[in-house]
Write a structure and sequence with these properties.
By secondary structure, the chain is an alpha/beta fold. Helices cover 36% and strands 15% of the residues. The structure holds flavin mononucleotide.
């Protein structure tokens, strides 16, 4: 079984990012297992913790170490990555030389309730993943605008075009993951 961690950049219960992530998780092939790895419980990163890691850091790092790839689904906050997601990235990246992200294939979906679609968050996240040596799906890029309109009252994607587009994105991600297996 190939394991993919799903990390959502919003802590809101009714988060559109989370609903989209749940839909996308169901588009992976049968021999893939998706696991939502939570980030809201992580204390703010402090370099002093490198020698004395909080329990939450230990289990988060273990969870990422145990997967083959990582899918990020995030909103944009103030034209960038939400702080809670950046914190999780920083936590996983340290102690220096022991980053749990290293060489894990990744994919990014950004979404926004407006027409902006999270381009800024998507590309700021790409900048960090480049440094962290994560090969990232290049095409198709996924910027979902007007996200509330894409979901029905049960949180399911409501149109075939978006489902097919996201399926093509997952297929590209699977191709990338296979190259690194
Ligand atoms: C602090 C904050 C900053 C935001 N900044 C942006 C922004 O820069 N661009 C944008 O398109 N939407 C922005 N929004 C609106 C988000 O797109 C919207 O709140 C979205 O629903 C958040 O995703 P979620 O549903 O997964 O929580 C911002 C929202 C918050 C709370």
């Amino acid at each position: 079984m190939v394991k993919v961690a799903v990390i959502v950049g919003s802590l809101r219960k009714e988060s559109f990012s989370r609903k989209i992530a749940e839909n996308v998780a169901s588009l992976f092939p049968k021999d893939y297992q998706t696991e939502f790895v939570e980030i809201g419980q992580l204390p703010l990163y402090n370099e002093e913790y490198d020698s004395n890691a909080p329990e939450e850091y230990v289990s988060f790092r273990d969870a990422i170490r145990s997967v083959d790839a990582v899918l990020f689904v995030t909103p944009e906050y103030n034209r960038s990555v939400p702080g809670v997601l950046k914190n999780a990235i920083d936590v996983g990246s340290r102690p220096y030389g022991e980053s749990v992200w290293n060489a894990k294939p990744a994919a990014i979906i950004s979404q926004s309730i407006s027409q902006l679609s999270g381009f800024g968050a998507n590309h700021h996240l790409r900048q960090s993943l480049t440094f962290l040596n994560m090969p990232v799906v290049q095409q198709p890029e996924v910027y979902l605008a007007n996200s509330p309109d894409l979901l029905d009252e049960n949180g399911k994607l409501n149109n075939e075009q978006t489902i097919q587009f996201l399926q093509s994105f997952v297929d590209s991600f699977v191709d990338l993951i296979k190259k690194y297996q």
